[in-house]
């Protein structure tokens, strides 16, 4: 940690103070408040966390040290072994297990996190459609329905209940019904993505996606969370994201069933059996990342993201959460996540491309 004097206040810089200037600290900063500032360090291409506090009035002692930030992720942080218990936040005291659903705000944040993972946007992309090269045909909608699997047919059927006059979508549904089992589900779907894009703002198409998202992903994730004895919002949010990403079914080694089984074996049980939920979740994240690398050869950024929130102690999926994205060939990639109360004061950061930093309030 570096300590340097500003013109009107003390500045504590976590990790680096190389490019912090007094001019970047606004004179209007309210006295007595502790904020976090994201500053863009162009040489190392990292976002630094900076906390601002007023100088201590004499003869008061210096301010107590601030907690150290999460370490800069390694090139493949998801490949790390599960953290030791001493590295993890403490789970709250437990009494008799009582199921609690996510609050509306926690549910919204979990959805927005998954929206970032699926489409790199906070706004739900109901009109998104693309072959992303994962062998699942066309991926479409705000939570990544795919034409290889049955969720796509369920969305189209739900939509056609509301709009039976959409001949194009009925034709696509017929083609999906005729699809050979195991094929990628693109045959006969020429123009499908164009039609999905045209319906991106259509209330019937949106309602159809929301209905199937509930029945296929969110509600089943709640069943899993209850069966495992989940108390923490971050655990329930992770189970929701895993359900969307992996699906369920013991016939598929990529499914959430197998990831849970491996985690229970590694931890000697589940939270419902008395296993510490924070440690169980950390192990689940590690095994999920390994499953993705072994069976799908995908990046595990979405898992690194939840791991950082866990290690930062955001067990309740509180906001705000800041997400840094980096534009690259082929789309956005997640660079980092920060949890806490943030304000952006850096003029350099404001010049980054639109969408490079997203806020989940």
Q: Mean pLDDT, nearest integer?
A: 73
Task: Please summarize the sheet with the most strands.
Answer: 5 strands, mixed
Distance between the termini: 28 Å
- Give me the count of strands: 11
Please mark out the parts with pLDDT under 50 across 5 or more consecutive residues, or reply none.
Answer: 1-75, 341-356
Shape field: globular
Provide the structure class: alpha+beta
Beta-strand content bin? 5-15%
Rg (C-alpha, Å): 23 Å
Tell me the number of helical segments per DSSP (H or I, 4 or more residues long).
10
In terms of topology, how is this protein built?
Blueprint: E1 2-5, E2 10-13, E3 35-41, E4 46-53, H1 104-119, E5 129-130, E6 139-140, E7 145-146, H2 150-162, H3 167-177, H4 192-198, H5 203-228, H6 233-246, H7 256-267, H8 277-295, H9 301-311, E8 321-328, E9 331-339, E10 342-343, H10 347-350, E11 357-360
Parallel strand pairs: 3-10
Antiparallel strand pairs: 1-2, 2-4, 3-4, 5-6, 6-7, 8-9, 8-11
Task: Please give a quick description of this structure.
The protein is an alpha+beta fold. It has helices spanning 104-119, 150-162, 167-177, 192-198, 203-228, 233-246, 256-267, 277-295, 301-311, 347-350, and strands spanning 2-5, 10-13, 35-41, 46-53, 129-130, 139-140, 145-146, 321-328, 331-339, 342-343, 357-360.
Characteristic key phrases:
361 residues; alpha+beta; 5-stranded mixed sheet; 11 strands; 37% helix; disordered N terminus
Description:
The chain has 361 residues and is α+β, with helices and mostly antiparallel strands. It is built from ten helices and eleven strands. It has helices at residues 104-119, 150-162, 167-177, 192-198, 203-228, 233-246, 256-267, 277-295, 301-311, 347-350, and strands at 2-5, 10-13, 35-41, 46-53, 129-130, 139-140, 145-146, 321-328, 331-339, 342-343, 357-360. It has a five-stranded mixed sheet, with no helix packed on it. A three-stranded antiparallel sheet has the order 5-6-7. Strand 5 and strand 6 (139-140) form a beta hairpin. The longest helix has 26 residues, at 203-228. Residues 1-75 and 341-356 have low confidence and may be disordered.
């Amino acid at each position: 940690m570096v300590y340097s004097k500003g013109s009107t206040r003390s500045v504590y810089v976590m990790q680096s103070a190389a490019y912090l200037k007094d001019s970047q600290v606004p004179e209007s900063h309210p006295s007595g408040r502790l904020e976090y500032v994201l500053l863009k360090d162009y040489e190392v291409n990292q976002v630094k966390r900076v906390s601002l506090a007023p100088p201590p009035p004499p003869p008061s002692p210096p301010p107590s040290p601030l907690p150290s930030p999460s370490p800069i992720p390694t090139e493949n942080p998801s490949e790390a072994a599960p953290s030791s218990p001493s590295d993890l936040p403490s789970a709250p005291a437990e009494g008799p297990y009582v199921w609690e659903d996510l609050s509306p705000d926690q549910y919204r944040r979990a959805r927005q996190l998954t929206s970032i993972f699926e489409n790199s946007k906070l706004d739900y992309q109901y009109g998104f459609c693309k072959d992303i090269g994962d062998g699942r045909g066309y991926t479409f909608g705000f939570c990544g329905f795919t034409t290889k699997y049955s969720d796509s047919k369920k969305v189209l059927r739900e939509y056609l209940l509301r709009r039976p006059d959409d001949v194009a979508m009925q034709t696509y549904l017929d083609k999906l019904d005729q699809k050979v089992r195991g094929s990628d589900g693109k045959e006969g779907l020429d123009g499908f993505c164009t039609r999905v894009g045209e319906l991106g703002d259509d209330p019937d198409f949106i309602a159809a996606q929301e209905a199937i998202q509930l029945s296929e992903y969110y509600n089943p994730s709640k069943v899993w969370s209850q069966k495992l004895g989940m108390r923490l919002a971050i655990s329930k949010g992770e189970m929701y994201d895993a359900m969307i990403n992996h699906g369920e079914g013991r016939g598929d080694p990529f499914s959430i069933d197998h990831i849970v089984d491996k985690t229970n074996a590694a931890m000697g049980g589940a939270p419902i059996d008395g296993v510490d939920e924070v440690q169980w979740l950390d192990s689940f994240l590690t095994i999920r990342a390994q499953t993705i690398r072994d069976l799908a050869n995908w990046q595990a950024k979405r898992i690194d993201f939840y791991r950082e929130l866990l290690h930062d102690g955001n067990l309740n999926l509180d906001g705000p959460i800041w997400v840094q994205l980096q534009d690259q060939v082929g789309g956005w990639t997640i660079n980092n996540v920060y949890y806490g109360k943030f304000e952006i004061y850096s003029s350099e950061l404001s010049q980054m491309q639109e969408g490079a930093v997203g806020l989940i309030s």
